[in-house]
Task: inverse folding
């Protein structure tokens, strides 16, 4: 069974609306929706916002359900020079930018694991990136002309690389610049992915993260954020994750690239 996770309802609502046979299972105050998407068995859940909430959700999910792989979808703030609003970042590595147990452990390293950067599953990520490129080829068809104009989405791109997570919403140019200086290869920043990647690593379950860029993580990051999530990001998630599922199981039977 595939797990599909997002932090907020608006990020997952379009996918949930397409599940024909969902059954709600409630655990620890969280609703896990079990059913099928495009004929594939899935369980969908909101992780809630922040690393602790997301890690708790992921641990429950992997302990209670027969999960073969986990895909995290939703939004992020752009950091890389060429990462713009409406682009998509598919993570290759994930890191907690606000974790620092130095000098006992190297900065960013999760104590007692030897890891700072947790790898996303290659096969899952490759499949999602390919579908994302196909979806972004026609942004007007994807989100509509009005949303495309409103948010300046004209030639969106797919990026692969480092995604960083921390327990704060990065919304000033100063914070954004500090993150770029400290982690110059970081493409985008959000609040959950690296924590979920760590849990998946512990459970030895393949993980992938696909994030729609909602803002540039600067002083304008809060402007129209929820409108973007509802009008753009939810449609991206439906098209990318739904399209990926529609193509089949994408190598879940062969986990040689598992983290």
Result:
């Amino acid at each position: 069974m595939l797990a599909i996770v997002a932090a907020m309802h608006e990020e997952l609502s379009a996918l949930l609306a397409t599940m024909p046979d969902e059954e709600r299972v409630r655990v620890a105050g969280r609703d896990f929706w079990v059913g099928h998407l495009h004929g594939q068995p899935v369980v969908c859940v909101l992780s809630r916002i922040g690393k602790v909430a997301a890690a708790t959700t992921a641990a429950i999910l992997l302990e209670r359900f027969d999960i073969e792989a986990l895909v995290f979808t939703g939004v992020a703030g752009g950091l890389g020079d060429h990462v713009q609003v409406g682009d998509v970042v598919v993570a290759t590595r994930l890191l907690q930018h606000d974790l620092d147990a130095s000098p006992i452990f190297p900065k960013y390293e999760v104590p007692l694991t030897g890891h700072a950067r947790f790898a996303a599953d290659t096969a899952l990520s490759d499949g999602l990136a390919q579908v994302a490129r196909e979806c972004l080829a026609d942004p007007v068809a994807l989100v509509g002309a009005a949303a495309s104009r409103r948010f300046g989405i004209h030639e969106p791109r797919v990026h692969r690389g480092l995604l960083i997570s921390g327990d704060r919403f990065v919304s000033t140019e100063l914070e954004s610049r500090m993150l770029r200086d400290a982690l110059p290869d970081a493409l985008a920043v959000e609040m959950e992915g690296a924590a979920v990647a760590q849990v998946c690593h512990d459970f030895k379950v393949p993980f992938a993260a696909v994030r729609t860029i909602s803002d540039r993580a600067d002083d304008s990051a809060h402007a129209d954020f929820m409108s973007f999530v509802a009008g753009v990001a939810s449609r991206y998630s439906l098209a990318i994750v739904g399209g990926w599922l529609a193509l089949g199981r994408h190598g879940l039977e062969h986990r040689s690239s598992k983290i």
